Fold this sequence. Notes:
Elements lengths: L1 H57 L4 H16 L5 H21 L4 H5 L1 H36 L3 H8 L11 H4 L9
Amino acid sequence: xxxxxxxxxxxxxxxxxxxxxxxxxxxxxxxxxxxxxxxxxxxxxxxxxxxxxxxxxxxxxxxxxxxxxxxxxxxxxxxxxxxxxxxxxxxxxxxxxxxxxxxxxxxxxxxxxxxxxxxxxxxxxxxxxxxxxxxxxxxxxxxxxxxxxxxxxxxxxxxxxxxxxxxxxxxxxxxxxxxxxxxxx
Length: 185
């Protein structure tokens, strides 16, 4: 009888260790995903001053929009690195402003033909695609971690060892809106 109790206890301890290791792996995958997003967001933030500078040379009437893009970039960089929700909101606003900036470029044919601007625009499009891929990876890893944290019996091990849900990286509705462009007639 004592052997059975010992085997049951060992099985439960072994299972708890397996669950703990799965939680650790899931947390690391989510952290890796967030790191990927962070790298791409920094790349985009580093590109913004060059983009603004190039547009400034041509678009003298768009000072307010250029200042807004610069302000939003600085706000996004000031958000605490581990505050996923605030970072998503700030980056969403920056993305929306960049979209409006690129839409305004349509008013400046010389700027649209400028090789430097075309390269910056191409880099920005590439970075935006990388951000989307990193976001999907992070959100998938976060989903897996959250399932483990919330489902039985891994939620018991998660609670005992301090694992918590992570926030998804989601943009707000304002940043998803299509920029409105009006051309002078």
